[in-house]
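so im writing up the methods section and need the protein-serine/threonine phosphatase record in one place, dumping it here so i stop losing it
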Amino acid sequence: MNNKGMFKHRDINTFLTNHPAAEKQKKKPFEYLNLSYSKQFDGSPMKKQPYTSKANENQCKSQQEPLFLRQNTLPNYEPTRCSSLKNGIIKAYAANTNQGLVRDYNEDRVSIILNIIKPQSRENEPWPKCSYFGVYDGHGGSACADFLRDNLHQFVVKEPDFPWNPINAITKGFEAAEKCFLQMAQDSFNQGIPERSGSCAIVILMIGDSCYVANVGDSRAILSAESGKKVIDLSKDHKPELERDRIIKGGGQVYQTHGVNGEGQTILGPMRVNPGRLSVSRTFGDIEAKLEKFGGNPKIVIAEPEIKHIKIVNDHDFIVLGSDGIFDTMSSKDVITQIWKDVQQSQNTNDLHDMMSNAVESVIKESLLRKTTDNVTLLIIAFSVTPLREQEVRVKTTSYIDKLVNFPQSSNSTNLRTKKYNDENNPFFMNAQKLKQNPKLMKSNFEDNFQYRLIG
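--- predicted struct ---
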C-alpha cells in the first residue's frame, strides 16, 4: 500500500544530521513490525550510542567549546519528525528530542495524534477536527513518561465529556491516568520491583479552532503571534517557590539545596519540595512523594492540570511545546526569536514543514550551545507563518487524513504496526491517521486500539 504523504522522515544535511550511523543493534522487546521504520530509528534513546569525531577543520577553535560543536555531532541523534500534510488549521508540525550533552539517557517522550476520529459508538454525533500533542519530561526513570506517551490521550478521549466539554475531559482524564499509574507502581513495589519514576506533562488539545493547553510540571507552552512580535506564555511553570502557599498549607515544605565548590564558594541549588525532594511541584507518578505508606503526602505534589483555553486566529503563528531542558538556558522570547531567525533564513525552501523542522533543530542546537545539562525536547505546531505559507499544491483534494482509510490487519504487511506498537525505548508515539477509544485499559498490558500508517 502506498504510504506516502502523511508523515515525513527528514534526514537533510544540517548541523544536527552530521552524525555517524549507529551500530546495528539486536532486536529489542516489542520491536516494530514495520521493518523500514525500525531501521530508520534503530538507535535507542535509553542507551548511549558510540560515535567518532570528524577531523576538526578549524584547529583554532577553543577547546572550551562543547564537544558536540567541535565534533559536529550529537550522541544518540535521531532525525527530526515533521508533517507533510496539513489537518484543519494545523498547517505543519515538527518535533525532536535528545539526551543532551551530559546525560547518557533520555527520559523525555513525545505524543502526536494528528486526527482523533469519532468512535463507532458515537457515530450519530457530529464530530469536530481534533488533534493531540504532548511532551512528557520524565525523571527517576522513563516508566511514567512511557505510560503517558502511550496512554494519556486515551484517558482524555474516552471521557464522555470529550470533545464537547474538553476542560472536564482533560481534568478527569488526567486524574484517571494518575490513579492508574500509581496503582501500577504500587503493584510493582508489592512484587519487589521499586517503581519511583514520575513525569511532567504539557499537552495541547486542538478541537476545531479552539486550543486547550494543559500543564502539569515545568515544561512549557508558548504562542508566537503577529510574526513573532508577541510572545505569550500559555502555561505557568509549577515550581515549589511559585506554589509555596499551597504546599505549606497542605503540610509540605519548600527548601533550597546548597553546596560548596572546589574554591570554597557556596553554590545554591534549585528550590525543592518535601516530601519528594523534587524541584517541581506537580507531576504524574512519584509514588514516594504521594503515598503515605512511603512517607508521602497526596496534597503536596499533585497531578492536577492548569488548563488554558484560547481561540486560534489569523494573527497566531505557531505554538511551541518544550521540556525544561530548553528553558533552563533560554527564555520564552529567546526560543521564539530563534525560530523566527531560522524561518527568515529558510525562505528559499518555500516549505512550511521543512522550515518548522529546521527551526526545531535550530532551537535544540542553541540550547546545547548555552550548555543546558538536561534532556531537550521541542515540538512546534504551526498555524500560519507569514510571509511563508505551506504549498497548497501538496493536496489538490481532500487529504488522506480526511478520507479515513481502513487498513486490514495482515501478518504479511510491513507498513503496519499491530500489537505492541511502541517500543519502550522509543521516545515518540505518533499516529497521523486514527485514534480509537479504548473501552478498557488493562493494568499492565494495554491492548492496541490503533491502526497506523507509518511513513518513512
